[in-house]
Design a protein that fits this description.
Strands 1-2 form a two-stranded antiparallel sheet. By secondary structure, the protein is mainly β. The radius of gyration is 15 Å and the shape is globular. The chain is built from no helices and 2 strands. InterPro entries: Peroxin/Ferlin. It comes from Nothobranchius pienaari. This is Myoferlin.
Amino acid sequence: DEVFQNETRFPGGEWKPAAEPYTDVNGEKAQSPEDFECPPGWTWEDQWSFDSDRAVDERGWEYGVTIPPDDKPKSWVAAE
């Protein structure tokens, strides 16, 4: 499973949890990693970790202008 932890801030402000603090790859609301339960008969192999193969900083954060899904016209959203 992939879970994205989201934070937000205004320029010069402090980082705080976003309205949807955890989302899936499609930007839909998701559970926090601690709330995920294994299916019956399964066990966790390891702790959750961040994907360092993405464009992230040393702590695993990826930065953008908006958090999808957003209601702004797509021409306003930064793109790589």
